[in-house]
């Protein structure tokens, strides 16, 4: 299966990096450049999981994926594709792992992608294989840079205090829509 793996360093504690992966508030688009705020729908959410549709414009088309997010395993957040207009499912997923370091955390992002048959799938499947490693490495760096800009930390080894889940802290409203975008 086509896979892209990137590893980067962050000045933030692992908990803060991972929280950003399941923060579905308005700030998600500020941290994750491939997420468009108007194309973000939280269908349902539990203590350690969420059912979310996210989309982004890729040139003249909009690609979207509906994922089951799971952050029940320490040190990791996994998003498994359950529906999409470009990715095959359930074979496609992405995962972010963060482990502590002396100066913050080591962050690993892994994208496993199978593409749907048809012109869109062939196009994006080819792009994923040819330019994906360079694009996703840059994307991962951008995510961490954005997060560090938004959440500077005086001591990267200390977890975020008070309301540690930003979505809960902001009073996230869940969408009851069942359809995909």
Q: Name the overall outline.
A: globular
Mean pLDDT: 84
H/E series? EHHEEEEEEHHH
Provide the CATH topology: Alpha-D-Glucose-1,6-Bisphosphate, Chain A, domain 4
Q: Ranges with pLDDT <50 over ≥5 residues?
A: 154-181
What kind of assembly state do the chains in view correspond to? single chain
What does the main sheet amount to? 7 strands, antiparallel
Radius of gyration: 16 Å
State the end-to-end CA separation.
26 Å
What is the name of the CATH architecture? 2-Layer Sandwich
Q: Can you list the strand order of the major beta sheet?
A: 1-7-6-5-4-3-2
As a percent range, the share of helical residues equals 25-40%
Number of domains: 1
* Total beta strands: 7
Number of helices: 5
CATH superfamily: START domain
CATH C-level category: Alpha Beta
